[in-house]
Structures are given as structure tokens and as C-alpha cells.
From TrEMBL:
It comes from Marine Group I thaumarchaeote SCGC AAA799-E16. Gene3D superfamilies: Spore Coat Polysaccharide Biosynthesis Protein SpsA, Chain A. This is Protein RfbJ. It holds the Pfam family Glycos_transf_2. The lineage of its organism: Archaea, Nitrososphaerota, Marine Group I. The chain crosses the membrane at residues 231-252, 264-292. Residues 7-165 form the Glycosyltransferase 2-like domain.
Length: 295
């Protein structure tokens, strides 16, 4: 059996209290540990370096997506066979690293998500967070070949193929869905395994509303690029239909009363204009994306 080089990547921002015990435990199971010190103002980077981790220092905070991108590039540079990413806030269990990586070790899939929703016994996820994650996951599933249960999990494993073929570009939390959609589009196999996450003390500092809005907008952007005819074309057709309907209604009333119902006329014209704009956007974006893909 060929030994695979397992690298664990940790995006970290001001996590000096958590980083040392994490690295100490990870040293027992990982070949390499990469810590992306994402503009921390504390000693996160210094501690990680002393503990033997490969440290990437961002001079300023670039966000979760920027940290994941740096981890991808460094893991690629180090010729890692598997990259496992996990959060630095103590929510993820070190004991779940190998189970998350196993489907790739066994050459079954290319990307593994550690899902918080496969273990029925785990019911400690805050309700507002669970609702938000499920909504965003449903949105992501619109562009995936196989549905997943937890598109926002940061506990993942990536094969060498993924590391070589995909370079994340999103700077925010939308990077999770970006990687999923790009992987699915390129035919990489995706699987999930159950993990347990601790929410004691509410360790997350991310505002749930800004998080949700950011991820939703990012996901919609990638869906619009991947499926422009559906994303713009279907709404465009609906608005065109409404425009024609209200225009005919307006003309019919005019023929009967010789008066123009201004409200109906404005709705009809507005729907027609908006429908034409959406339809043209669908056609132009589809043409541009097709040309880029051919090249």
C-alpha cells in the first residue's frame, strides 16, 4: 500500500488559546500541519511556528476564503496527497480527521465533507444556525450532481486531484460552496461522513446574518455563471409573459373605454423591458461562458 501524505490545513485568526493543543494532537496523525495566520494580532503565528507547523502569514485579514486559498496553494506546493481542513476554534474533534480522510485514502471519492447532520444523535446545533445552513445547502444543491447535507462544513478532506485542478477565488465564507460547485462541475466524486461539533461557549464570532447574506450572494453568483439560461432566462420568460398579458389587458380596456389604465400600462411596459433585459443577459452570458469553456 502506498503511503499517502496527509496535510491538515487550519485557517486561524487570533486563536492563540486554541492553536497549541490542536497542533500537539495533530502531530500524532498528520504528516504536515499548515496554519494560515490570517492577519492575527495575537501570537497565533508564533505559537504555531514553535509547535512545528508550516505557517502562512497574511499581513492583514483576508477572510476565510483567502485563508483556504492559501492553504490550497501551500498544500499543492508541498505535494500533499490529501488536505484536511478544519476550524481553529476548538469546535472540531481531532479524532475525526482520519475518518474524514478515509474515503479518499481508500480511493472512493475526491472530496469528503464532515457533515453535522448525518449523526442523528447530535442535536446541539443552535436552531437559527441549523436553519441557515440547511437553506444555504439547498441553494448549493441546485448546482451539484449529488445532494449534500452540510455544504457549509469547514471540516473537509480534498484529494490531490482537487488540489491540482481547483484554486478557490472567493474571499468570504462563500468559498465552501464555490469549491463544491467547481468540484461537481469537473466530475469529482463528493461524499459525506458524520462528525461531531462542539458549540459550547458559542465559539463562532461570525455574524449569522452577514454570513448568510454573503454565502447566498456568492452561491447565486456561481449558479448564474454555471446556468445562465436557467438563472436569467426563466425569470426573463416569466416577465415577458406578464408584460404581454398586461399589455393586452391594457389594449383591450382601451378598445372598450377609449381610456388608458395607467397602472396596468406601466406594469406591462415594465415587465416587458425587464423581461427583455433578463433574456438578453441570459443569451450573452451563456455565449461568453461557452467561449471561455471551449478555450
Amino acid at each position: 500500500m502506498i503511503n499517502l501524505k496527509i496535510t491538515v490545513g487550519i485557517p486561524a485568526f487570533n486563536e492563540e488559546k486554541n492553536i497549541a493543543p490542536m497542533i500537539q494532537k495533530l502531530n500524532q496523525i498528520a504528516d504536515t500541519i499548515i496554519v494560515c495566520n490570517d492577519g492575527s494580532t495575537d501570537d497565533t503565528g508564533k505559537i504555531a511556528s514553535k509547535m512545528g507547523a508550516v505557517v502562512i502569514n497574511h499581513p492583514r485579514n483576508l477572510g476565510y476564503g483567502g485563508a483556504i486559498r492559501s492553504l490550497f496553494l501551500k498544500a499543492r506546493e508541498l505535494e500533499s496527497d490529501i488536505l484536511v481542513t478544519m476550524d481553529s476554534d476548538g469546535q472540531h474533534r481531532i479524532s475525526d480527521v482520519i475518518p474524514v480522510a478515509n474515503p479518499i485514502i481508500n480511493k472512493q471519492v475526491d472530496l469528503v465533507i464532515g457533515s453535522r447532520f448525518l449523526d442523528e444523535a447530535q442535536d446541539n446545533i443552535p436552531k437559527y444556525r441549523k436553519a441557515g445552513i440547511k437553506m444555504i445547502t439547498k441553494l448549493a444543491n441546485a448546482s451539484l450532481d449529488n445532494n449534500v447535507t452540510d455544504s457549509q462544513s469547514g471540516f473537509r478532506a480534498y484529494s490531490k486531484k482537487i488540489l491540482l485542478e481547483i484554486t478557490p477565488s472567493e474571499k468570504g465564507m462563500g468559498v465552501s460552496n464555490e469549491i463544491l460547485m467547481k468540484s461537481s462541475k469537473q466530475g469529482f466524486k463528493i461524499a459525506e461522513v458524520p462528525i461531531v461539533v462542539s458549540y459550547e461557549g458559542e465559539t463562532s464570532t461570525q455574524n449569522p446574518i452577514s454570513h448568510g447574506v454573503s454565502v447566498t450572494l456568492s452561491t447565486l453568483k456561481f449558479i448564474s455563471i454555471d446556468h445562465p439560461l436557467k438563472f436569467y432566462g426563466i425569470p426573463g420568460a416569466i416577465f415577458l409573459f406578464l408584460g404581454v398579458f398586461f399589455t393586452i389587458w391594457t389594449l383591450q380596456l382601451f378598445s372598450e373605454t377609449r381610456e388608458i389604465v395607467t397602472n396596468l400600462a406601466l406594469i406591462g411596459v415594465g415587465c416587458l423591458v425587464f423581461g427583455v433585459m433578463l433574456t438578453m443577459s441570459a443569451i450573452m452570458l451563456f455565449s461568453v461562458v461557452s467561449v471561455i469553456r471551449e478555450k
